[in-house]
Amino acid sequence: MADVEQNAAGNGSDAVNGTAGRFVSSAEGTALAYGSLLLMALLPIFFGALKSVGCSKSKSASDMPETITSRDAARFPIIASCTLFGLYLFFKIFSQEYINLLLSMYFFVLGILALSHTMSPFMCRVFPANVPNKQYQLLFTQGSGESKEEIVNYEFDTKDLICLGISSVVGVWYVLKKHWIANNLFGLAFALNGVELLHLNNVSTGCILLGGLFVYDVFWVFGTNVMVTVAKSFEAPIKLVFPQDLLEKGLDARNFAMLGLGDIVIPGIFIALLLRFDVSLKKNTRTYFYTSFLAYIFGLGLTIFVMHTFKHAQPALLYLVPACVGFPVLLALFKGELTEMFSWSDNV
What we know:
By secondary structure, the protein is an alpha/beta fold. It has helices at residues 27-55, 70-93, 96-126, 158-177, 180-197, 203-223, 226-233, 246-249, 262-281, 287-310, 317-335, 338-343; strands at residues 2-5, 16-19, 66-68, 135-142, 149-157, 198-200, 239-243, 256-260.
């Protein structure tokens, strides 16, 4: 988590508290902002973890999870560091306006797809039974005869079209206005889909990933100004924001507290893994899931407290990783299930 002046924008791996101009938020406004961010962070973790249990059983290709192996986990902090530094150089060399225009169009498309996927289960429940739900197929092939190959084969129905239509309206709203509500709708959709569809294959892989990103976050926040520079320049819905001056200025408020999606998704996929481990034990309890979930609340609350107290940039994973990994491991040690936890593999 980083404390940045002058309309900062959050990035994918840290939370940012931006102050617009010299406006000083009220204590109530600040508490409302951070409380709302905490709630918004918990929602995709909780529901994404629940959905991750059953998504591997889905027959839909779009719902199949992407499994992260130990090799992927070890390389991820290096790839993230290269990407972050690359963005830093881009913002230093090229015009910030044009880069953010390209990024806005890229996340416009991704955001529509993510929000549509998030809305789909809800639409299935509210879709009127008397309205025909027609089936469609988008098929692109290459070649002909026996050598014909499928390039794109996407099946959808009327409900999916409605979801895409609504998501497109939100997308246009975001691109034109960059409104914080539109940003949050896309951000929540990204986070929920990330927790649901990104699966760690075992607890050891989770420890490698979180440990590596722990070092990554601490280095780029405390060791350099790269993280903060990119955070201030990057305009994309890869953060959740909430205005601290909402009580004074309403929906036009601009003094944002921000939380990067990386601080939600990275611990979230580990918490979801522990829920699937709970299910594998077949004891009808969710002890490890609730322990890690409460640990996340503690870690994020501690991050906000330290940042607010010392008025200094704080990498959120510095507090989230020890909490989310340490508490469940200590619980497993206490219950005598530590070996079982680390030998278990999530076969998705």
